[in-house]
Amino acid sequence: MSFAAYIDKRVKLDEKIEPGNVRYNSALAIMAAKLAYENKGFIRNTVEQHWKMEFIDMDTNYWNDYFENFHTQGFMFYDERVNMIVVSFRGTEAFNAYDWCTDFDISCFENPEMGKIHGGFMKALGLVMDHGWPPQLPADKRNKNLAYYAIRDELNERMDLNKETKFIVTGHSLGGALAVLFPAILALHGETKLLERLEGIYTFGQPRVGDGKFKRFMEEQVLDRYGVKYLRFVYCNDLITRLPFDDPVTSLYTHFGTCLYFNSCYKGQILDEEPHKNYFATFGGTRRFLNALFELVRCLYLPLLKGGDYREGLAMILIVRFTALAFPAVADHNPLDYVNATRLGSMEVFQRAESSKKWLKNSATSGREVQDKIKYC
């Protein structure tokens, strides 16, 4: 088990959230994002034995051409009940130096069509050294298992077998960054078939990944053109969602998509941007400390109100909740609170979020008509 699994040992899905429930995709996505931190055997056992779904048997470790090792992790599984494939990328492991190198890689990948994007994230996804993003791997790289190319090819094979199958991509932290970049490269390569079957992008605790030009590229070439939902979950004071800082002088990174912001009572809001987008605010330190104190008290009474699934273990209480009194920004990044938010958030918030793009998914309109509808919504 990973550190993330010791913090939150839940492996079963919430039985009350069944297919057809507006929370279903979000709740499944965060559990998949949390599971991505584990080894292949743990993942397979959870998917097959607990979730009763099909684990897609392929390598879960992917080659990073710049680190020259198998560093990126992710997995895929098939949910027959809703005829959907889930692609999940692993986030930053607490004690993995390569992950931290990826996060703090301040190099910038620039593409004339897409704009400027965080270099470390692009390298983790499968950026090919000396080649960038060729549509097909060069001959000398075909024996390398690069994440984007391996997952794309597997998805294409699966989509050919069933013309009705759709898929979503998800991830927590670094995994969320890779989840939003994956469809961007699909759009760059003109992978229309896959983008038409992309049901949604679900990210949790995701950092900013690109500049304003990349934002426009994603909105025009993925979200609006194919009617793809992009739900970006933010829990309370999570620092990672506010990095790199969105500042016109010191940074060029910016968020986009639909922000689902949840406070420490798991009350959700749909916003364009999370509150205190650069984290700093007047009296922010006092406010964050009081919030962390409330979360410590909450972990004691929440199981009494909501049941045993919400009982937090000693590792979570001692390592995360008490640490949060000094470092609330880091503690609020844990996957446990994101799992709780998808299970306890109001139905109304998820209804609005899930229905925001459905009309466009089945629409044959384009051009000015689509732009008028988007403006009207």
From TrEMBL:
<dbReference type="InterPro" id="IPR044819">
    <property type="entry name" value="OBL-like"/>
</dbReference>
<keyword id="KW-0378">Hydrolase</keyword>
<dbReference type="Pfam" id="PF01764">
    <property type="entry name" value="Lipase_3"/>
</dbReference>
<feature type="domain" description="Fungal lipase-type">
    <location>
        <begin position="86"/>
        <end position="246"/>
    </location>
</feature>
<dbReference type="InterPro" id="IPR029058">
    <property type="entry name" value="AB_hydrolase_fold"/>
</dbReference>
<keyword id="KW-0472">Membrane</keyword>
<protein>
    <submittedName>
        <fullName>Triacylglycerol lipase OBL1</fullName>
    </submittedName>
</protein>
<keyword id="KW-0812">Transmembrane</keyword>
<keyword id="KW-1133">Transmembrane helix</keyword>
<dbReference type="InterPro" id="IPR002921">
    <property type="entry name" value="Fungal_lipase-type"/>
</dbReference>
<feature type="transmembrane region" description="Helical">
    <location>
        <begin position="167"/>
        <end position="188"/>
    </location>
</feature>
